[in-house]
Amino acid sequence: MKHAKKIVTVCGAVVMAWSAGIAIAGVTKPGDVKFDDTKVTAPLTNEAGDAAKGKLLFSNRKKGNCLACHVNKDLADKPFHGEIGPPLDGVASRYSASEMRGILINAKVALSDETIMPGFYMVNTGARVAKKFKGKTILSAQQIEDILAYLQTLKE
Amino acid sequence: MRGLIKAAVVFALAAGGFANFGPVNAGEDLPAGVTVVKAPAAKGGPLAEILSGWGSRSKSTQQLQQDDFENPGYLWVDKGETLWNTVDGKAGKSCATCHDDASVSMKGVGAAMPKWDAKLGRPMTLEQRVNACRTDNMEAKEWKWESDQMLSMTAYVKNQSRGMPVNVQADGPMEPWVKRGKELYYTRVGQLNMSCANCHEANYGKFIRADYLSQGQSNGFPTYRLKWQKVGSLHRRFKGCMKNIRAKPYKRGSDEFVAMEIYLAQRGKGLQVESPAVRN
To answer: Which residues in chain B are closer than 8 Å to A127, comparing Cβ atoms?
Structure first.
């Protein structure tokens, strides 16, 4: 019982460290992301993005949910593609990886202050963030890289 | 069968649209008791035209609002009529004791809510007005905002104004409330960092995943929502929107939501009261 409690405490500490944004080896924290004009050149993690995972995150309503706003013919088997943002068919032929990384991280910087697109890897978002999401990014650094890897497969 | 549905969905996608969803805003197809679902906007305002949420809904949803026997919101209107005539509280009164026939005394009342109360020095929503009447005049207990009784009463009272133009006061003492509501409308909130305007002003008439964005007009509330399977208040809808964008919602009846209700009503001037509307 005592042992179990200890494990819970250790797990709790790890989770707390994670949510407090304490540096994880090789991962750029949201506050340390460097924009070069509209681009973010350096990958956020040491691990290469996984396009297959990125494809799942793209349509996952609790994660990227990119499909909520963007049409993507590559996912034609999934119903209900949104019409808010531009279609992403062939997006990799129009934007470089650094440009797309910038847009994913913080579209307010990369595109326009006026854009409706959320910043998926930033913590200074709107007012009154719900407790559950306070101080947290929508996606993790690795998830950004995974989605980016997937987007790079969408060529004309 | 499933394969067939899937094929149909893929086909609809390939065709670039969803034929079974809105928009229908022709003008000749109207909800019961209403003659306007689309109105010219005041000059200098943020919208090119004022559109009731009616036009954003599918044909099958619209049909429910075209026949009062089909409209499930009328279950609440009918309950409201019963409550109107039911004595409650220590003073031994019903609404009818003072207000008599609601079809006469309440005509136009709902269309002008929220309304300035000079004695209290603040605007009152219909819910707040009903509760003030209950505690002050009937010596009865307040109803909770989203209780079945409150929804029934507000649906019933608002229904007495159906077809009448939205007529909220926006000047004089109401001005600071309109201003506050406008501020809130354009403030980005939540982890998704969006304001009301991001969806309902800049992107109405478009799909956001399976949802078709309306202008977020308030003229149909209390409204029967298929998603809720019941009638709900405007403030409940506000909370839902705020939760969706991962923000901490304000409370029902809070000054913030009252200000937003006033601003929205003002923004939707030109439309008619549709309560109880039927929406997805």
So the answer is: 187-189, 247
φ, ψ for residue B153 (rounded to 5)? -65, -45
Tens of pLDDT along chain B (280 residues) come to 444 444 444 334 333 333 333 444 444 589 999 999 999 998 888 999 999 999 988 899 999 999 999 999 999 999 999 999 999 999 999 999 999 999 999 999 999 999 999 999 999 999 999 999 999 999 999 999 999 999 999 999 999 999 999 999 999 999 999 999 999 999 999 999 999 999 999 999 999 998 899 999 999 999 999 999 999 999 999 999 999 999 999 999 999 999 999 999 999 999 999 999 999 9
Q: Note if B98 is an active site residue.
A: no
CA separation for the pair B253, B170 (Å, rounded): 19
Tell whether A3 is covered by a domain: no
Q: What CA–CA distance (Å, rounded) separates B67 from A37?
A: 57
Residue A128 maps to a domain: yes
Q: Is residue A125 part of a domain?
A: yes
Counted domains in chain A: 1
B190 vs A contacts (CB less than 8 Å): 125-126, 128-130, 133
**Residue B208, SS3 per DSSP:** strand
Among candidates A116, A136, A138 on the partner chain, residue whose Cβ is nearest the Cβ of B194? A116
3-class SS string, A62-127? CCCCHHHCCCCHHHCCCCCCCCCCCCCCCHHHCCCHHHHHHHHHCHHHHCCCCCCCCCCCCCCCCE
In a domain, A19, yes or no: no
- Residue B113's closest CA among B236, B241, B237, B273? B273
Cβ separation B189–A126 shorter than 8 A? yes
Cα gap B189→B146, rounded to integer Å: 24
- What is the DSSP pairing of strand B223-225 with strand B278-279? parallel
Beta carbons of A126 and B14 less than 8 Å apart: no
A113 touching chain B per CB within 8 A: no
Q: Do B246 and A133 touch (CB under 8 A)?
A: yes
Span B14-35, pLDDT tens digits: 333 333 334 444 445 899 999 9
Nearest chain A Cα distance for residue B185, angstroms:
13
Of all residues in chain B, the percent with pLDDT exceeding 70 is: 90
Is B191 within 8 Å of A125 when comparing Cβ atoms? Answer: yes
Residue in B with minimal Cα distance to A122: B191
**Domain ranges, ordered by start, for chain B:** 2-71+164-279, 74-159
A84 close to B (CB below 8 A): yes
The reply to whether residue A79 touches residue B210, judged by beta carbons under 8 angstroms, is yes
CATH code for the domain defined by B2-71+164-279:
1.10.760.10
